[in-house]
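thought: fold this chain, then report.
action: predict
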Amino acid sequence: MYYDALKTFVTVVEEKSFTKAAEKLLISQPSVSVHIKNLEKEFQTSLFLRSPKLLKITPSGEILYDRAKQMIQIYEHTKRDIYEHHHLVKGSLTIGASFTIGEYVLPSLLAELRKQYPDINVNVTIGNTKEIAQLVRHFKLDVGLIEGQTDDHELHIEPFMDDELVIVSPVAHPLANKKQIQIDDLQNEMWVAREKGSGTREYLDLVIQSNGLKMKSMLTISSNQGVKEAVMQNLGLSVLSISSIKQDVEQNNLAILQVDTDPFKRRFSYIYPLSSGHKKVVELFLQLLTKR
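observation:
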């Protein structure tokens, strides 16, 4: 490859001097001379007319000068394209997320992903845990982020983040002003819940059943925002992820009931089909998850 020789030749033509070309290219003048001699040998022609006071390009040199600039440009573009092929990440990523993760956790992850890999196209589907698991199993999503559990043996499940669930009430609820309450204080309350198949609903059912609580009524709504709005309208208590209500508590729209029990802990997990091979974009996204 005569890239260095061609680049040296072009520089000599533009600088009109072997000495200035050597200084610009940070090489010795003898090296400049060797490059020019090699080109003249290759093309069987003189490229310059030399005299002590004059360096003039020959007609053959004029032809080579135009072609050399094109070849250098093509070489540099090719080098750049090959580098980008190996180092820049492009492609599409389809993510499924259960409601709590999709609405309150995933946006910050996507912002970080976009910052690091701006050429990745991302499509997000939000549904409950059961729906996301089904879509992943049928290869309609590259990866799923769920807040509950799945017993699907065709899926690999891996935790990536801890979450805490709290019991919330309207700010005007009698229990909201107490520093601490007993679990039995929640007997015969109205409740607002997510739909069956939701990870959050799974934990609410666990709280109710494991503590033998009797419900006055149950209102089911298939979105976190709908549940929060219903609680604000005094339609009942609910169990929600603390990540989904931080702003509402700060704005005094919802209250967290201080129940004298161990914290309700769970883990957010990612899932993917056991039989699938990861695309590079999926691997990068999963690395981002595990660094949280």
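thought: worth noting. The domain at 91-161+268-290 is CATH 3.40.190.10 (D-Maltodextrin-Binding Protein; domain 2).
final: tokens above.
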